[in-house]
Amino acid sequence: xxxxxxxxxxxxxxxxxxxxxxxxxxxxxxxxxxxxxxxxxxxxxxxxxxxxxxxxxxxxxxxxxxxxxxxxxxxxxxxxxxxxxxxxxxxxxxxxxxxxxxxxxxxxxxxxxxxxxxxxxxxxxxxxxxxxxxxxxxxxxx
Length: 142
What we know:
Blueprint: H1 2-20, E1 25-30, E2 37-46, E3 49-57, E4 83-91, E5 94-102, E6 107-116, E7 120-126, E8 133-140
């Protein structure tokens, strides 16, 4: 009985550690220009790739906004629920080879993300090479 309880406690602590040491979860986006929180993005895995969708918008007045500047199938869709991170693949300690959508401008950028500790996520969108881009730091929602 004692061994069973010890094993369960060890398994639970390992599962908790693995979850906090992963990009999977909910993240509060911070605007790199204003420093203000903008939204909550849920990052998830599907078919071995990483995706992220907007699950909440902080500014109440923008909760019902549409992606009017977007192109293709995202055009005029609600920003809430929009998948903005698409198809990232794990490459060492970062995830890359995917795209990120800026719903404000409607522009699609190459993207890579990397954890900084357990509770900060560096998200870089760029054109061409990563030198020509900008980075936002998102905070894990607990």
